[in-house]
Amino acid sequence: MAVKDPNSILNLPGIGPKKAELFAKLEVSTIEDLLRLYPRDYEDRTRLLPIASLEVGVPSCFIASVLNTPMTHRIPKADRRALEVTKVTVGDHTGKLNLTFFNAGYSVEKLHRGETFVFYGTLSGDYIGYGMTNPLFEPLGNKGRVTRCIVPVYPLTAGLTNGQVTAAVKHALDIYIPRETIPEEILQKYRLPDIRTALWQIHQPADAQSLSASSRRMIFEEFFCFSAALSILRSKRTAKAVSPYVTDPTAFYSSLPFTLTGAQQRVIGEILADLRSGKTMSRLVQGDVGCGKTMVAAAAAFVAVKNRKQVAFMAPTEILAKQHFARLEPLFASLGYKTALLTGSMKLSEKKKCREALAAGDIHMVIGTHALLTEATVFADLGLVIADEQHRFGVAQRAALLSKGESPHLLIMSATPIPRTLALILYGDLDVSVVDELPPGRQQVDSFLVDERYRKRLNAFIRKQAVEGHQTFIVCPAIEEGETDSLKAAELWAQTLQSAVFPDLRVALLHGKMKGAEKDTIMEAFASGSYDILVSTTVIEVGVDVPNATVMVVENADRFGLSQLHQLRGRIGRGSAKSYCILVSDNQNQETRQRLKALCKTTDGFLIAKEDLKLRGPGDFFGSRQHGLPLFRLGSLNTDLEILRQAQEAAAYIIAREQALPPALEERIRRFLEQEDTLN
Ligand code: ADP
Ligand code: MG
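^ thats the input. predicted complex w/ adenosine-5'-diphosphate below
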């Protein structure tokens, strides 16, 4: 027989192989896992009321004496065990209450006439009379086992009850001494309970106050480990010496058809300083849509290839990868460098050819999706990784890069204007540059908020633009099953427009559930002018450039966040013609209209982000799926920002001290850096 792992939950009473399998479904196999299976909710049974104050539908506790001997009737049933119904009346100085128990078995026999118990249940009833069914109860002297306590509610799986999990956790708390992850002085400074107390209180809270102190501690711990991991990541990167680059971008500058803006030049300057420093660069470049981040990245790429290093340029979508390729390939070719495209939808043989050329060092820059790094791509000498639109490039991927060959420089581009303070915390391992200027001569996009009454004029406007040879984006909220009634589901809307409104124009549809190749075909056809109108979900949100498109219509605009709307608006106004963004919403909510009107008034992405952040908090602000933010199990970026700030401060202090860390913390950090921490 195999030796039992001393940490396995199989050591707990009542857990055999079968139960263990069920726990495994909850990702619990060790006792520590079990203690980290936090309740998803609590049932607060601390409300204690006199009978007369009980409210219908509100679960509460009350203390009452048994007024008569319980009476049990059996109701025979043809197919099953007889139904046992027990009735008893209890009362206190404020009133009486009839209790009914179904199949309560021998437990109701404990309700002796004249004795006092604590009950927990929900009052039901109406003007005919009140009563309570199957309340829980225990003798007054039993200190809060099922009444007058806070009961944890665990995530469960079929076959496992809340009671079973609670019992297992209780055993675990009894026998297991958890290891402390937070150094003592930090616990004291931030007034956090130690790990043992915190775990007890999370699972068996004495009262609301100690529960809240303990959950604060667990949230702190989560952020603390994260921040410590970032600090370590950063110090590891900067500790590694790499050969400094010679950084002369003159040839690149003179190959461009335009002069770079002051902001572009400044940020390129910051990047080049990193590249010649002899240390590995980790830099996040933020800048509003259209500020010209691609050229900033290209300048860095040029310097890398000039230093005989290879560059991997990653885009979040194939569409964007192809667009970057179409732009950068000729530019780099004119400078004497070879660029290749590597995407998932390419033929296997083409991919293979590309990979071989990369491994041989025949290709200087490869552009593709982020699968570039995870797939078996081998570089002859990878010097720089560029992640455009930082989505999906989380901490684990940042950490993984370190192990890739000679630890390449990392440049992350983001159009999501994360407020600087938050960026400093979440990207604590990165330096941050901001491109805060748009290229000159940009057409201001005019924005309007309209409602359904405007529909006819809107359609006439779209037609007029089409006749003048311009194109229109129409964005609808995502297609979700069963959610078609009030929403302009993209698919339906595209059909309606084509058949009933614009039979003479060319309407295309693009949505997130299409296959990559299908999306590309449509996007390319639209970009080349084969369609007048593109109806789409937010898949076009990121980066795509169609200079001939002059109208962006957003249906049900109230469904979108401000930053998201701003991104959408950034898809137009890229050519020389005047552009228009039209937000359609019938939502009459005063606040909502205010919010949308605010967007129409300004085109400053950072200002909008600030506003958005104020309104929605960072969690929602980043959109649900499209960010590269770490997933926290407990902490929320909406409500726990202050804890995050403290945890980061504490982590920076601890790491800077360069003393040995608590082993449990080291272990958590290691796991953190290994785990896939993004949502995708
Ligand atoms: P983003 O920062 O949103 O990624 P892009 O890099 O896609 O912006 O640039 C948007 C457009 O502006 C592109 O068509 C690009 O060629 C153009 N552009 C970039 N820099 C300049 C500049 N300094 N002067 C004029 N046009 C520029
Ligand atoms: Mg871009």
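Residues 208-239 form the longest helix (32 residues).
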